[in-house]
Amino acid sequence: MYYFRWLLGFLHLFVWGSIILVHAIPPPDPVQCNRTICTLSNSYGAWGDRKDCSVKSVVYPTTEEELRSAVAHANKNKLKVKVVSKFSHTIPKLACPSSLGHDSLLISTAKYDSGIEIDSVNLAVTADAGVALRDVIDKVEEAGLSLVAAPYWEGVSVAGMISTGAHGSSWWGKGGAAHDHVIGLSMIVPGNESEGYAKVKQIGAQDQLLNAAKVSLGILGVISKVKLSLERGFKRSITYNFTNDSSIENNFMEHGKKYEFGDITWYPSKHTAVYRYDSRVPMDTPGDGINDFLGFQSNEILISKSVRASEKLFESTKSVNGECTLADTTLWYKKQIGNGLKNNGQIFTGYPVVGRQGKMQTSGSCLYSPKTRIDASCAWDPRIKGLFFYESTAIFTATKFGDFIKDVKKLRDLKPENFCGIDHYNGFLIRYIKASKAYLGQSEDSIVVDFNYYRADEASTPRLNQDVMEEVEQMAFFKYGARPHWAKNRNLAFLKVQSKYLNFNKFIAVKKQLDPENMLSSEWSDEILFGKGGVGSDGCALEGLCICSEDRHCSPSKGYFCKPGLVYSEARVCRYSPSSSNL
């Protein structure tokens, strides 16, 4: 009892301490080099297989011609090529050019990030590939215009954003996926000797190649410029309704139709659904609010480390009650502060919160800080040993999503507290994506579900209630045929992914046309694109590198054995059991 009182006291300090304005240390550069080799990391400090990505050399072009020259050099010298921005937030190893290291070139667009051209007459903006999303949005808003679609996290470059299918939430207009607002781009592709080994290809709105190029995973060519459609400036009005989850499977469809930018966050263990009522309003509507989402705010480093220490304690002691206390307090706090909405740019005073589109559509305040500040950061910054987690993101055909919710509820109702490990992050975030012409986009109106959960410091360490997360994961991707978000997920989510995209073969045909020698492919991108299963090694299921079929794929020495799912019986999950003969 004393321990839980201490925990509540600690969380109280965490809650109210976060109201104080803090600025985070900037995220680390994803590329680190020594005298002999360079290493590429993502922003979380670990790839799915936890193995380093080593590259022979890195170049930092500042112009389109320098970018073309880098591609030409790689083509002439038979090097594998990948591109990374200054953010590197992709979870799969898509940006790693080769496992060999010595035959590769990494191109960073970190310094190719200044060109932004606004066309107010034709309502368009063209930006260099490495330009940060926030810089584009601010420039567009200064011109009295608005970019309609953007991902919730603003720590992306414009090229990276469209290449992996990043999205917000909307079934209206062109929809919530950023790539569906692309009306042109420039892409550098390999060329023959007479073409200087590389050439710039202009792809316009009516060019069929655009359907392949706007979600390309970086394997068709190197994007140099992106042209996005705009609209006249507008504001948004947001209200969160915290309510019971009893009818979520019946309400989600109407919610997406009624609210242009609506979403739902579901906390199964708390039987709570949070409906986001989010619609555009005229520019003369009073309000200068911002959306500073709680999860993307700066955190005191001490607090981030302490929360991680609490998680590890709960895991090692198998304290479900501890995780549920954390989930209760987190949900309570989100309700008190409007989940980061701020009416006047400083604090939350009540609903609705009205603000300009550019201040409401995306967030990421932990990205920005003076370099002299060393006591705060993004909570997942790998340098501070803070939060470390998985992110599973499944994209459902809308007509199948209600049945998925019903199945998750059946699993939840067996033991609701087993979902606290998901709920103390952000529950299940439910968003809307409209049907797209992109070959690797969604061919019909879809529902996207994101959920985060604890990842152990060591690959060999099993997790509390990991069978629940694994059953939900397999239920989504295999029972209901959900498609994985290209920039997120554990490897198993991509199994047989090519069969889930109607235009997959059209994409591959364009790949053969633009990059016939596979200069821009790697074993890592092939593993994702072609959904190749991992090798069934000891413990592989713990990290999502395989689906268990034998006990050794889990951790029998620590009491985790391969078992059938409790609701989805075809699932195979690693469940904690006193012996392999138990359920």
Report a brief summary of the structure.
Helix content is 26%, strand content 23%. It is an alpha+beta fold and 583 residues long.
List keywords for this structure.
alpha+beta, 583 residues, L-gulonolactone oxidase, GULO_Plant, disordered N terminus, ALO_C, eight-stranded antiparallel beta sheet, L-gulonolactone oxidase activity, five-stranded antiparallel beta sheet
What does this protein look like?
The model is unreliable at 1-21 (pLDDT under 50). The chain is an alpha+beta fold and 583 residues long. The chain has an 8-stranded antiparallel β-sheet. Helix content is 26%, strand content 23%. The chain is built from 14 helices and 27 strands. A hairpin with a 4-residue loop joins strand 1 (31-33) and strand 2. Helix 1 packs parallel to helix 8. It is globular and about 70 Å long.
Helices and strands in order:
Layout: H1 2-17, E1 31-33, E2 38-40, E3 53-55, E4 57-59, H2 64-76, E5 80-84, E6 104-108, E7 116-119, E8 124-128, H3 133-142, E9 145-146, H4 158-163, E10 182-190, E11 198-204, H5 210-213, E12 222-229, E13 231-232, E14 235-244, H6 248-258, E15 263-267, E16 272-281, E17 290-291, E18 299-300, H7 301-317, H8 320-336, E19 341-342, E20 353-356, H9 357-360, E21 376-377, E22 389-397, H10 398-414, H11 420-423, E23 428-433, E24 446-454, H12 466-479, E25 483-484, H13 504-514, H14 523-529, E26 560-564, E27 572-576
Parallel strand pairs: 4-6, 5-6
Antiparallel strand pairs: 1-2, 2-3, 7-8, 8-12, 9-13, 10-11, 10-12, 14-16, 14-20, 15-16, 15-23, 17-19, 18-21, 22-24, 22-25, 23-24, 26-27
Helix pairs in contact: 1-8, 6-10, 7-8, 10-12
EC number: 1.1.3.8
Signal peptide: 1-24
Protein name: L-gulonolactone oxidase
